[in-house]
Specification:
This protein has 2 helices and no strands. It is mainly alpha-helical. It has one domain. It is elongated and about 50 Å long.
């Protein structure tokens, strides 16, 4: 087995897997929030989706903010492991 070097060398295998999973989920939440916020720009994709504009905006804002929080937490977790 090769030795890991660089920023990820201080994480064990399971910690690294969870860190990658958290980062991917954070980006997914953020992107889904953006898609919901800007759904009218994609009207050809969402033609069949009948969702109330207020509900769509509320879900988009909540998912976008939650995604940003998760991204911040993932970055902070990387930086805290340095100390």
């Amino acid at each position: 087995m090769t030795k890991r070097t660089g920023i990820f060398s201080k994480f064990s295998g399971q910690e690294l897997a969870m860190l990658i999973f958290d980062a991917v989920m954070a980006i997914l939440y953020f992107v889904i929030g953006l898609i919901l916020l800007f759904a009218p720009l994609f009207h050809s994709v969402f033609k069949s989706a009948h969702i109330n504009d207020g509900l769509r905006m509320m879900l988009g804002i909540i998912l976008g903010l939650y995604g940003m929080f998760r991204i911040y937490r993932s970055i902070r977790r990387l930086n805290l492991k340095d100390r």
